[in-house]
Design brief:
The chain has 151 residues and is α/β, with parallel strands linked by helices. It has one domain: Cupredoxins -  blue copper proteins (Immunoglobulin-like, Sandwich), CATH 2.60.40.420. Helix content is 22%, strand content 30%. A 5-stranded mixed β-sheet has the order 2-8-7-4-5, with no helix packed on it. The protein has a 3-stranded mixed β-sheet with strand order 1-3-6, with no helix packed on it. It is globular, with a radius of gyration of 19 Å.
Length: 151
């Protein structure tokens, strides 16, 4: 009887080790400026990535309250609604409505000279889906945006 539990444990170990070996984190760097611009208009995520790590650097000098930036990922059809709801959420909430299920991933708001990172699973995305990234600071989202392509 001891052989069966041992075999089960070995099988689970092999399966979990295989899952860890297959994990692929794809890293993306993006910068935002005091001129309300991202340095990228499109981000391509390879279909074999299992997680994405986005690092946002604010290359400007203005403080977060005056020219804060974040990186928010949503389905393109949800962008305007998320941005509108976030405008009233305030700086303390990174200008995002608390618990907004439409937000796939986001960084915190940062000011000049700061950097922040967010990591999320690609299982939240559909290959070939229509995704937009943007800054949710009020007034920024109409200019500071781009496309995410997965697959």
């Amino acid at each position: 009887m001891k052989f069966v539990p041992s075999l089960t444990a070995l099988t689970l170990l092999a399966v979990s080790s295989g899952a860890l070996a297959a994990d692929k984190v794809c890293k993306v760097d993006i910068a935002g400026t005091d001129q309300m611009q991202f340095d990228k208009k499109e981000i391509a995520i390879a279909g074999d990535c299992t997680q994405v790590e986005v690092t946002l650097k604010h290359t400007g000098t203005l403080p977060v309250a005056a020219m804060g930036h974040n990186w928010v990922l949503v389905k393109t059809s949800d962008m305007q609604g998320v941005a509108g709801d976030g405008a009233g959420a305030g700086l303390a909430n990174d200008h995002l409505k608390k618990g907004d299920a439409r937000v796939i991933a986001h960084t915190k708001l940062i000011g000049g000279g700061q950097t922040t990172t967010v990591k999320f699973p690609t299982s939240a995305l559909t290959k070939g889906g229509d995704y937009t990234f943007f800054c949710s600071f009020p007034g920024h989202w109409s200019i500071m945006k781009g496309k995410v392509k997965f697959g």
